DNA sequence: GCTATACTTCGATCGTTGTCAAACGATCCA
DNA sequence: TGGATCGTTTGACAACGATCGAAGTATAGC
């Protein structure tokens, strides 16, 4: 896990941006799938139950990361995504649980 | 309070639609202001701290109502809006609290 | 070095949406 | 009945955003 792509600090995460990021069926789905595991998960298209191109999924990862919902790790050619549970819980307690319930 | 404008039944409220409705700064603001009172509140522009036209606010009330977030009552020339707290709490427990906190 | 791999970025398309002014509809009241 | 008021709807426009294929970038492995 070489480096981490740029992402907002915990205090810089904005509620409107988070809601905008969650307000898309594809992103909500991948966030749900991310929430079922605790370790980082592969970024790749095959790992998710969505019917879009790799380019589009890449766009969604960026939106989620820039909104502060996920962390992306780069490891060679592979990328890994992880939900920022703690940061989100600290910033907006209960929000993620309510959305994913 | 003559009639109530059409709105989705509790079971028909969708999470993505609710998130889309909340993911706008103006709508989030008026929802916040609505949440500070328990009775229905006036629909009129002067009653809210937003910098838009009456036509645009009217559009936002429609989006919120159709998403299932609010109920609109018609009484003569006046309209009143109310947060659907119970329906939202039943459908997505904790969501509204988390968003408004 | 070369080539295959894994994902991103670019450029373009096209539907969606936030916005306003103007027109409209309904209601109240003199 | 005729205005004035309150709010919606319509029509138009610009900005945004989801999407894709193609080109680009970095890395692994030979």
TrEMBL record, chains A, B:
Keyword DNA-binding included in the entry's annotation: yes
Alphabetized SMART domains for the sequence: HTH_ARSR
Keywords assigned: DNA-binding, Transcription, Transcription regulation
Pfam families for the chain: HTH_20
Residues covered by the HTH arsR-type domain: 7-101
Transmembrane segments: none
InterPro entries recorded: ArsR-like_HTH, HTH_ArsR_DNA-bd_dom, HTH_MetalResp_TranReg, WH-like_DNA-bd_sf, WH_DNA-bd_sf
This protein's record includes keyword DNA-binding: yes
Name of the protein: Helix-turn-helix domain-containing protein
Organism, scientific name: Amycolatopsis heterodermiae
């Amino acid at each position: 896990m070489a480096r981490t792509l740029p992402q907002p600090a915990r205090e810089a995460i904005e509620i409107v941006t988070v809601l905008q990021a969650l307000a898309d069926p594809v992103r909500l789905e991948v966030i749900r799938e991310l929430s079922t595991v605790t370790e980082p998960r592969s970024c790749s298209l095959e790992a998710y139950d969505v019917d879009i191109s790799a380019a589009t999924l890449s766009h969604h990862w960026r939106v989620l990361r820039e909104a502060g919902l996920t962390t992306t790790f780069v490891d060679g050619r592979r990328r890994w995504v992880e939900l920022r549970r703690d940061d989100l819980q600290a910033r907006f307690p209960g929000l993620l649980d309510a959305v994913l319930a």
